[in-house]
Fold these 4 entries.
Entry 1:
Amino acid sequence: MYYTKIILVFIGYFMGLHLFSQNNFEGLGETGLALNHKVNSGYKVNFAVRSRYYLYQDENLNFENRQIDAVHFSTLSLNYNNSLSLGVQYRIRASIDGGSNELRLTQQYNYTKKNLALRFGHRIRFEQRILETLTILRSRYRFALDFPLNGEKLDVGESYLITSMEALLSKNKKIKPELDHRTTAQMGWLFSEKLKFQFGLEYRFEAFNVKTEEKLFILTSLILKV
């Protein structure tokens, strides 16, 4: 019952955001496939491919592909709670919707701690977004919570909930600094020791200190350990 109440609160939150967000609103979907490989006890790698597409824009329902992302992260565990990661991402847009392709470099610090069934994490990222005409430096901080929906331990065949809030700051000499905020809630299912599926929503306030653009994402992802 406790977890059900949490889920209902998040559903109501997203519905409220949508009802009060009439200007510059878009709905998008993002589908991803991730492959995780643990090289040894202190080092792991991740490869992912994601597709993003419009579902609602200009006050009309409309399916239109937007971009494809190829992502890699290498993570070094410092101890049980702390880790450092380096990432590289390439975004293809020019041949899809005419936007700019992007090369993104990422440096990340992550701290996690578990208290019974509840695990929380703090993540700091620094990104260099290299576009065709400019380079954007972006800083990000995310606070996340996740927990199984049945008991204190996640077993095969059971589900779990992931929630997070993230603040972003983008800077470039040619443009005014932009502030973003993202709220995310996803449910996941552990199908086997090596396979997970996640589905959820993410609401974004982009450039809210300049001219707010609001986006609702429907997220789906398949995560495989290899």
Note: Helices lie at 2-19.
Entry 2:
Amino acid sequence: MKTRTKISYVILKYDDQTDNIYTKTSNNENHVYEIPAFEYVQKQDSKLADIKTYVLEKVIDFNTFIDENHIFIPFINVTFENNIQTFNYIVVIFESNQDTFSSLNYESWHRVKYDHRKQFWNLTWGNGLTDPVDFKFENEAMMDYVANPHDKDELTFDNVMHFVTEQTNDFPILGLMSGNKFTMKQVFHYQDLLGIETLKAGNNETFENQYSDSIQPIVDDRLTTSYKIKNNYLKK
């Protein structure tokens, strides 16, 4: 059986001009939701760190700010079709450029919002050189990850957002959209924009206790306390 490897990546970024969170999509003639992806020639001794480096090289440009430690590979999807086994590395990227949309002519940015009542993801077109097309699809991974034997992009996005939601219980992962420094208020605001419902700390002291294993305060002269993710935690 032949094998191939590809990398699909979900980028999440906050835009301070519109006060929304966006994700990048690939344009296509059928106007269906498509996650950006590219082929990857995997060496026999390659590691996840090599894949992160490769992703960084593929997505970086003069208007994109991504830290390699802000790239995550939560799972690999394996599919079989036409006697070909495909290994799809699913990557989550948190971009910290908050005032510029960087994209190629075959890419667009869509605003991400979750409808709790209908349990649907709403992806509204926001930026890009294409016809404005909105997407809406059911969140099938609301309670747990779902199998994706046919490598459907909607299910991949569902699983990615389930991963993000789970991680917020252990560390404020959405704070990475502010770069290497964020505030408690920013983290909670990003959660509200995405519609992620998690237990919120009432003050900075509670916030620090909740995430004591993963964050540390930054000592500066500002009135609002800023935090960063501990280096050792990101390297897990």
Note: The first strand starts at residue 2 and ends at 15.
Entry 3:
Amino acid sequence: MVVGYISRKKGFLNKQVNRSLSELLINVTLPFMIISSFNFNFSRDMLNIGVRLFLTSIIIHCVLFVLGRFIYKKFEEDEVKVLWFITVFSNCGFMGYPVVESIYGKIGMFYAALFNIPFNVLMWTAGVFIFSGRGDKNSLKKALLNPGIVSVLIGLMIFIFSIKLPLPIIKTLELVGSMTTPLSMIIIGSTLADAKVKSIFEGYSVYVGTVVRLILIPLVVLFILKGVGVKEFYLSIPVIITSMPAAANTVIMAEKYGGNSEYASKVVFLSTIISVITIPLILMLL
């Protein structure tokens, strides 16, 4: 992140370059990383863990969707929509995957990809509803065809049928996919360099949303899962993903569906900055 921040301040990066790098990450490097993480011989145990994580993710996202509708009632309506959205959707793509991959490697990515399937679908269905108050057929189509879902489906076929990819293809997937973590950190650092520091820290509601997103949600998930005796990947993947800051797409969704994009930017910036401190603390509790 420091490299991205300095590069932006020096003028090596700008908004257009950031946008292009983000498109590269979302459409190329991250899908390659996900597909390569499924390059295992079929294992019923791994599939069972993945399915349980998928179901856990559905429950978590649905509960957060309901809670997010009510816990911010005292704030302005345009702020409520943004806070509701970030309560449901964390930055699992730009930060969640890299963190999981750095800790658990390919097998962690395998489970995180399955855990994040509901996120990819709900982002363009429930997420649209949060800002616009209605559904959108085009958004549903976009949800089902987005690179995150397509790459998981391809990966599942490789895993379930134990397809042996040629070595050059495997190496290409791994090499390009390995760019995801450094690229995402550079993009985040460059984006933070744009922030008007003074304005970010203004407003009580921004802090409330940030505390809920970075501290309350992962802690509640952690204690509930521990309370029911959940261990290992069943515990670590949900906690890590829910401990990430506000989804980077919050600003894009707000702009597209009539939300307050300026306020969304503040929440994303603040939660991302503070997550540098909170994520390691949450990980220590695992």
Note: The radius of gyration is 18 Å.
Entry 4:
Amino acid sequence: MTLRELVRRRGVLLLLLLMPLAFYLIRRDAYIGQSVRALLLGIAWAVSTAALFTTGAARDLEPRLRLAGYRPHHLYLGRMLGLWVIGLVIAVPFFGLVAVDSDGLRYGGVAAAMLCAVAVAAPFGMLIGAVLPRELEGTLLLLTVVTVQMLLDPAEAGARLTPFWSCREIATWAVDHTDDSYLTRGVLHAVAVTALLVLAVAGAVSARLRRRRHVRQLPVT
């Protein structure tokens, strides 16, 4: 359902591709590491935005699907998988752009950072959409998180509390050729944050779609 909805809206797909491109081009004249880090945040922003709006759009439909027999985990896991696929579709051309436009990077690290951005962004946007019913509030919160992520020094202790810290850590390993501890910390952070966000989405969606005792599904005769 999520894939069909996004594919039908070709203008939305175009905007999702333009957002990371704008992030990349704005920092293109600076140090290559800055443009790669900006691109990663652009991908995270695009996937999170798609997750936020698809979650909001399905808010009225999900109770009917629940009454039709679907369980909550069918709904949120299906949407999450669809968003991960969309995220990969967005990330692949930008990986090609970085490979063509720059030299001397650890391209495996760039790919890993993009995968982490997509993995974290989908449940993060879904969680915002599940907790905040109004899209304007969700968009402002998402904008605030990404802005703080861009401005915060990744070396500070508080930076580890931000959802996309793993992307910048892995990007440092890929661009600056630092030791492997950066890659290890980044991957572990992405796995932990993704797992926590998935559990939070599961709790929020299950609580909202919990069937009331007075509601009973009548058998079809």
Note: The chain has a mean pLDDT of 82.
